Amino acid sequence: MMKEMMMNKRRKKGRRKKRRRKQMKKPGKKSI
């Protein structure tokens, strides 16, 4: 629970767009 709260706080503060890009790249929509 503490880890999730810390992760959530970090994501809100850092707002990393790299993670979103990785998730989009995972599906491989461009590949298909």
UniProtKB/TrEMBL annotation:
Residues 8-32 have a biased composition (Basic residues). It comes from the Eukaryota. Residues 1-32 are annotated as: Disordered. This is RCG62499. It comes from Rattus norvegicus.
